[in-house]
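In the design runs reported in the main text, the only information available to the sequence generator was the tokenized backbone. The following block is the verbatim input for one such run; it is reproduced so that readers can re-run the procedure and compare outputs position by position.
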């Protein structure tokens, strides 16, 4: 009788991915997650439910709900440690409903079998000893790629484009102008102090020496930048 009848194929919802959920565990991520996108292809509301053969191995949020006409819902599926075993499967059920009101468990039980569409998803569990970015070399798996980043940094600074140097040159010019302003302000402050406290010229000489050093340094930096620009 009813046992031999296959539930109707999924027409109400489009699913991404459509057939397989891939989970890849790594030493640093023992609880990977996947997003299952459900898209309502109909012009009415659709209630959905996501079931699994291994309910203890997965956290599914939300595991049921109602999708508005032509709307979509993203279901997050998180593999729970230890997350082992074979032949894990998911089942997505969908049924046309009148409104966006949540469908209770009792109502799901009351739906006629031929009204509830189903689509199964298989699960592929992969375990990687290394992080996916390292290309499978286990001795480099915990380096977070810093070596490569440093290498890239070195090669960049050696062969910088003229545009980069132009930017640096402009920055230096701005910096020089700023220092010049500060120098003038300091000189004004020193003059005020001199007036206020009658400082001897010997004591203010320290400031002047500092400025000579700064100006020499700026001149050196500018000539350095100009050499590169040329």
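Verbatim output:
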């Amino acid at each position: 009788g009813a046992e031999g009848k296959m539930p109707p194929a999924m027409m109400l919802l489009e699913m991404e991915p459509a057939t397989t959920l891939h989970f890849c565990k790594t030493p640093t991520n023992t609880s990977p997650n996947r997003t299952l996108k459900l898209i309502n292809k109909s012009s009415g509301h659709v209630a959905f439910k996501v079931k699994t053969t291994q309910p203890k191995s997965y956290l599914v949020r939300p595991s049921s709900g109602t999708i508005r006409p032509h709307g979509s819902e993203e279901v997050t599926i998180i593999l729970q440690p230890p997350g082992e075993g074979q032949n894990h499967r998911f089942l997505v059920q969908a049924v046309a409903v009148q409104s966006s009101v949540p469908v209770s468990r009792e109502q799901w039980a009351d739906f006629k079998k031929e009204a509830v569409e189903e689509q199964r998803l298989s699960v592929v569990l992969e375990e990687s000893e290394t992080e996916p970015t390292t290309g499978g070399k286990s001795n480099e798996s915990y380096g977070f790629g810093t070596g490569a980043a440093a290498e890239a940094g070195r090669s960049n600074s050696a062969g910088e484009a003229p545009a980069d140097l132009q930017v640096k040159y402009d920055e230096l010019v701005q910096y020089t102008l700023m220092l010049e302003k500060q120098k003038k302000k300091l000189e004004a402050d020193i003059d005020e102090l001199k007036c206020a406290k009658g400082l001897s010229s010997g004591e203010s000489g320290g400031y002047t020496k500092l400025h000579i050093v700064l100006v020499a340094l700026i001149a050196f930096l500018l000539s350095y930048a100009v050499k590169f620009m040329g």
